[in-house]
Amino acid sequence: MSETLPPLPTPQEPSDKPRLLEVGFAPDEPCLRADAARNRARLLEAATRLIAEHGVAGVTMEAVATAAGVGKGTVFRRFGDRTGLLLALLDHSAHRLQSDFLAGPPPLGPGAPPVDRLRALGVAVLYRYAEQLDLLLAAQSEPTRRHSHPAARALHMHTAMLLRQILPDADCELLAQTLVGYLDPALVHHLTRQCDMPLERLEAGWNDLVTRVTGADPQR
Fold first, then answer.
1. CB atoms within 10 A of CB 21
2. Which of 5, 50, 54, 110 is deepest in the core (most CB within 10 A)?
């Protein structure tokens, strides 16, 4: 029998101050020296220019090194591999989303009922992912990184927290995986680009899914 899930704090939000999860840095370098941070920023700027000019396919470790005027080994030391570089390019968007759902205005941020926040979360993710689909898909080329990256874990943890406030007796860890699976970039790509579904239909589907999973009143 699985262990009982820990009870939520009484307030709507966790009792401790919300903190952004770190994304993009290796576990052994939570903060970079000033010169290393400048080099990292220059490499990311070069990669961003390459995407604008040639698409995600134009971002290779060698191309970024050439565009930034550094040796290829510098790029590998900073990001590990191409997937690590692409994940780093998504850091800003990930931090912005976390800021919005941890401390932004309702309904995405604190102050709205948890069901409304859950609905707003999925809609925000859908539209942000739609803007970055090519980069997201390229960054998720290794399945083992898909769920373990800090940005993905932050989304799952927040979804599970909201679910516990709505369904305290449910296995919210697994329910959160189900809901977050609806927002998978590969699925969004398939539905919008291969099935020609408008984002508005995916938004309506998300709201319907939340309603059915939580048993809440349909959104009016």
1. 16
2. 50
* Tokens linked to 136: 């997201």
Report the residue count for the chain: 220
- CATH code, residues 81-214: 1.10.357.10
Res. 189 pLDDT band, cuts 50 70 90 = very high
Minimal CA–CA distance to 45: which of 22, 66, 73, 64? 64
Contact call for residues 98 and 20 (beta carbons, < 8 A): yes
Distance between CA 154 and CA 10 in Å, rounded? 21
Among 216, 111, 110, residue whose Cα is nearest residue 166 = 216
Tell the burial category of 195 from Cβ atoms under 10 Å away from its Cβ (0-12, 13-18, 19+).
exposed
Q: Would you state the structure tokens that stand for residue 50, as one six-digit string?
A: 């390459």
pTM reported for the whole predicted model: 0.73
**CA 16/CA 19 separation, integer angstroms:** 9
